[in-house]
């Protein structure tokens, strides 16, 4: 069955990210060492990315654990401003949009990050349909987030090509019938080769 829909992950596909940026930025304003900052927030990641913990509650909890002495807005911005665009993937999105493929996002993320990247990176205007883990209440690789996408958006796995950078997520997608590609930005051409094999003009 020919491909008519693309399902894109965000992190390390459309956007690269680095949480060390956060740690370096706020370390002078914290009462804990820089090397301890991210570990102090590890257990908040899943609740935040499944919508059980709001962005505001995350920031207040992080501020308390880190003995953060700066303004709340600085902590929020330091947590948000960790992304850089992957230009090769963004150019691919533009190419696919010109050919009128259906473009969908499926990503583990949180409300704070989504607020930021949807505003700051124009590529997201190319995706009219999005499934975020904090809205769905479940994260990849759990099959329930894929089923949520199938049911709410009416996707057909057989003609939906899925792109993600994590093998467990790709395995979950393939188990549900999605043609899939495990993406590595340093091997972007491998993705293009996979698409050409499926007669997608890129």
Overview of the molecule:
The protein is of the alpha/beta class and 202 residues long. Helix content is 46%, strand content 14%. It has helices spanning 20-26, 34-37, 45-49, 55-66, 72-80, 87-98, 111-120, 133-136, 143-153, 167-175, 188-197; strands at 5-8, 15-17, 83-85, 102-107, 129-132, 160-164, 180-182. The strands form 2 sheets. It has a 5-stranded parallel sheet, with helices on both faces. A two-stranded antiparallel ribbon has the order 2-3.
CATH superfamily of the largest domain: HAD superfamily/HAD-like
Assign the CATH architecture of the largest domain: 3-Layer(aba) Sandwich
Overall CATH class of the largest domain: Alpha Beta
Poorly predicted residue ranges: none
Mean pLDDT, to the nearest integer, reads 97
Shape call: elongated
Helical region count? 11
Distance from N terminus to C terminus (CA atoms, Å) equals 18 Å
Question: What is the tally of beta strands?
Answer: 7
Indicate the topology.
Elements: E1 5-8, E2 15-17, H1 20-26, H2 34-37, H3 45-49, H4 55-66, H5 72-80, E3 83-85, H6 87-98, E4 102-107, H7 111-120, E5 129-132, H8 133-136, H9 143-153, E6 160-164, H10 167-175, E7 180-182, H11 188-197
Parallel strand pairs: 1-4, 1-6, 4-5, 6-7
Antiparallel strand pairs: 2-3
